[in-house]
């Protein structure tokens, strides 16, 4: 099933970074979903994790990991790390990973998953990031958000990259952002369903 995911879902959707493909071929995705969902771990869909949270589809994860261009010396922050699947993937691509989530039940599962030694799982509000470990070369937001808070941009190193699915008019668009000096900009590169993350709602606009 993992090999079928690689050949049918990743290679056909521009997931063409060899290291990303190798990581997704090697990491057992079924270890990061509830036991009763293991049979659908490799289906191209969102997988319920409990507590209203969902695991992104393989395609969305693979596209974001490809576009973020992880380098061996990078330090990465994962926002919405949940049970640790994306942390397990990034661990083999970068030097250090901080995996943040605010759901204690999910971080407990991530710690129990036996993640690589270069992954640190931390608990806290997603939109606050993890300033104690900043600056980061990569911020990987593992889900769909309405806006990128300035707090996370501030935790990026100069030249750092940020990946997320950004919701625009009800459509989630896989996007990559880059920080240069005092500026930050994001570009969408594909539309794809993604797991919504709490705490990133755009303030309601004033109406008469």
CATH class: Alpha Beta
Structural domain tally: 1
Number of strands: 9
Could you give the order of strands across the largest sheet? 5-4-3-6-7-8-9
- CATH overall fold name: Rossmann fold
Q: Quote the beta fraction.
A: 25-35%
Return the CATH architecture.
3-Layer(aba) Sandwich
Structural class: alpha/beta
Structural commentary:
This protein is of the alpha/beta class. It has a single domain (2-191), classed as Vaccinia Virus protein VP39 (Rossmann fold), CATH 3.40.50. The chain is built from six helices and nine strands. It has helices at 2-10, 18-26, 58-68, 85-91, 104-112, 150-154, and strands at 47-50, 53-55, 75-79, 96-101, 119-123, 136-145, 156-168, 171-180, 183-191. α1 runs antiparallel to α2 (18-26). The longest helix is centred in the first third of the chain and has 11 residues, at 58-68. It is globular and about 45 Å long. The mean pLDDT is 94.
Question: In short, what is this structure?
Answer:
By secondary structure, the protein is of the alpha/beta class. It has helices at 2-10, 18-26, 58-68, 85-91, 104-112, 150-154, and strands at 47-50, 53-55, 75-79, 96-101, 119-123, 136-145, 156-168, 171-180, 183-191. It has one domain (2-191): Rossmann fold.
């Amino acid at each position: 099933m993992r090999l079928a995911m690689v050949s049918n879902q990743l290679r056909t959707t521009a997931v063409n970074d060899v290291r990303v493909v190798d990581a997704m071929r090697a990491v057992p995705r079924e270890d990061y979903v509830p036991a009763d969902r293991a049979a659908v771990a490799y289906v191209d869909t969102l997988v319920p994790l409990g507590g209203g949270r969902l695991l992104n589809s393989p395609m969305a994860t693979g596209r974001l990991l490809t576009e973020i261009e992880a380098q061996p010396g990078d330090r990465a922050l994962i926002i919405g790390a949940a049970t640790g699947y994306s942390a397990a993937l990034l661990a083999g691509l970068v030097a250090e990973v901080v995996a943040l989530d605010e759901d204690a039940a999910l971080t407990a599962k991530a710690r129990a998953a036996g993640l690589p030694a270069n992954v640190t799982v931390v608990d806290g509000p997603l939109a606050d990031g993890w300033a104690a470990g900043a600056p980061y070369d990569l911020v990987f937001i593992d889900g769909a958000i309405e806006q990128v808070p300035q707090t996370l941009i501030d935790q990026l190193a100069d030249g750092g990259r940020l990946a997320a699915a950004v919701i625009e008019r009800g459509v989630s668009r896989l996007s990559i952002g880059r920080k240069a000096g005092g500026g930050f900009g994001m570009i969408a590169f594909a539309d794809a369903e993604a797991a919504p993350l709490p705490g990133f709602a755009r303030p309601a606009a004033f109406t008469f």
